[in-house]
Amino acid sequence: MSRAQCPRCLRPQSHCLCKLIPQLDSRTKVLLLQHPSEVNHALNTARLAALGLINAELVVGEVFVDLDVLLNPPGYQARLLFPGDDAQLIQSGAASDDSLPLLLVVPDGTWRKARKLLHLNPLLAQLPRVTLPEGAVSRYRLRKAPGPGALSTLEAIVQALEILEAPTSFAPLLRPFEALIEGQIEAMGAQTYQRNHLSTL
Questions:
Q1: What is the pLDDT at residue 135?
Q2: What's the average model confidence in pLDDT over 119-140?
Q3: Which domain holds residue 153?
Q4: What would the pLDDT profile of 24-37 be if each residue is shown by its tens digit?
Q5: Which residues is 60 bridged to in the sheet?
Q6: Per-residue CA distances from 110 to 37, 107, 116, 159, 200 (Å)
Q7: Which of 154, 163, 175, 192 is deepest in the core (most CB within 10 A)?
């Protein structure tokens, strides 16, 4: 028999995160395009971001038939948060008062799945790209990062918004994320965590 699930955060009712999820506003609009394989992942950080940001939207799929509409909301200029040779470093003031605010488009999935989303959706791949400064350290302690500076989707969004909208802090978005990780570590047991995860860091 399956455990009762919170319909909002999709966590078991006994581990509901809703009380930790803030309601933060932002000038930047965040569009999360989530690969279907991530929807039921225990650490669905894109959903936490969408729930915690008032000006955010989460769309699940592989091919987005209405992508042209999604990428062109009135009053915004779209940028894809994804590394690439032509990606520009996100800078403070990129969403200043004298320019249109950004629509920050964020693919959510493994690196392979995210690249697949770009391949299947040419309009996505054609967007101007922005990327985060190097040297960020993830709090995602449950799996080894694929490379230096690799962040979860939620962490990447928080860092991007804190640069774009400085000095506003978006750190409260990380509270449910940290609670989620602590809960996973507690469920697996300290010894298992230390043996399988600490040794890989």
A1: 72
A2: 86
A3: 21-200
A4: 999 999 999 999 99
A5: 34
A6: 9, 9, 10, 19, 19
A7: 154
